[in-house]
Every structure is written in structure tokens, then in C-alpha cells.
Amino acid sequence: MKSGMMAGVAMVLLGMTGAAVAQDVIAQRREGLRGMGRQMEAIKAVTDARGDTRPLVERVDAMIAFYRGLPALFPAGSGTGQTRALPTIWSDWAGFEQANTNMVTALGALRTAAASGDVAATTAAFGQAGATCGGCHRPFRGPAR
Ligand code: HEC
Questions:
Q1: What local confidence, expressed as pLDDT, does residue 1 receive?
Q2: What is the pLDDT of residues 67-100, one digit of tens each?
Q3: 58, part of any domain
Q4: Among 44, 56, 121, 126, which is 20 to 30 Å from 35 by CA?
Q5: Domain containing 85 — which CATH number?
Q6: Which of 55, 141, 53, 145 is nearest to 99 (CA)?
Q7: Measuring from atom 30 of ligand 1, which residue has the nearest CA?
């Protein structure tokens, strides 16, 4: 019975079209990126209030972990459907990876600043990180539709 179930699962998986798999990964990355937007808002709330930046380290760590995994959320063939991902991601994969590496680097600097408790340094590093989001969106993300 167990092997019968496994065979059934395998048949369902084989029956899924590549497009269905692509829609799953698109939904997953969009949800993750919305989460990054919320993290940035939460960090901004603290720097705007000139609050204690040290607890922000945990948020920044979560962001770094997400961006380390970001390229894997853009497999070939996931550029159509409910997505703003531009074809340039796959035609310039090295550039896309570089934009993502820049993000991880900027978040590393933000982490260091936040951990120091220095609000001015954290605010500056936050601004840099925000600009680095844009550094990927400009070449690789299309308009909302
Ligand atoms: C390496 C490239 C890259 C970096 C870095 C990046 N993004 Fe994005 N972002 C994208 C792409 C590509 C999309 C479109 C994804 C899609 O529609 O499939 C996107 C979409 C989004 C969305 C819309 C999600 C939705 O569909 O509702 C938000 C919000 C977002 N990014 C926030 C951020 C924030 C905040 C940062 C910086 C902390 C950031 N992104 C950094 C590439 C990037």
C-alpha cells in the first residue's frame, strides 16, 4: 500500500507541467520579497525613532539568509506568468547574481552598524541597503501589471 501511494505521488508530480512548477516558485519568491519589504519598513521605524538598533541584527540576519537563497528562486523558465521578472535576469545571469551579492554585502554592513548601536551609522547603512534593492530592480524587474 505504501509503495502504491508513492507511485501515486510520483504520477501526480509527473503530471504537473513545468508551468505549474514555475508558478509555485514565482509565488514563493514574491511572498519572500514582500517579506523583505516589511523587514525594511520595520528597520526604518527604528531608525526614524532613533531607537535601539541592536535588536535589528536578527531581522538583518533573516534578510541575509533570504538573499543567499534568492538566485535559486529564479530558475530558468520562471519568467512568464504572474511575475515582473525581466528576461534580462536570464540573459545576464552573472549581472543578476552580482546585484544579489551587492545586496548581501550591503546587508552585512547594515548588520555591523545595527550591532554597534550607532543610530547614525545604521541610518546611513539602511539608506545604502535600500539603494541596493533599487540596483537590482532597475535592470531586472519590470513595471507592475
Ligand atoms: C538581485 C535582485 C533583487 C534584489 C537585490 C532585490 N529585489 Fe526585490 N525583486 C526582484 C525581482 C526580480 C522582483 C520581481 C519578482 C517577480 O515578480 O517574480 C522583485 C520584487 C520585489 C517586490 C514585489 C513582490 C510582489 O510581487 O508583491 C518587493 C516588495 C521587493 N522586490 C522588495 C525588495 C526589497 C525591499 C529589496 C531590498 C532589501 C529587494 N527587493 C531587493 C529582484 C530583487
A1: 47
A2: 999 999 999 999 999 999 999 999 999 999 999 9
A3: yes
A4: 121
A5: 1.20.120.10
A6: 141
A7: 33
> For ligand 1, which residues put their CB under 6 angstroms from it?
26, 29-30, 33-34, 36-37, 40, 70, 83-85, 96, 99-100, 103, 129, 133, 136-137, 140-141
On whether residue 1 sits in a domain, the answer given is no
CB count in 10 Å sphere of residue 127: 14
Global pTM reads: 0.90
Q: Give the contacts of 50 (CB within 8 A, at least 6 positions apart).
A: 119
Residue 35 within a domain? yes
Q: Tens digit of pLDDT for each residue in 27-44?
A: 999 999 999 999 999 999
Domain that holds residue 27: 19-140
Whether residue 3 lies inside any domain: the answer is no
Cell, residue 92 = 545576464
Residue 52 to residue 119: CA distance in whole angstroms: 8
Q: How many domains does the chain have?
A: 1
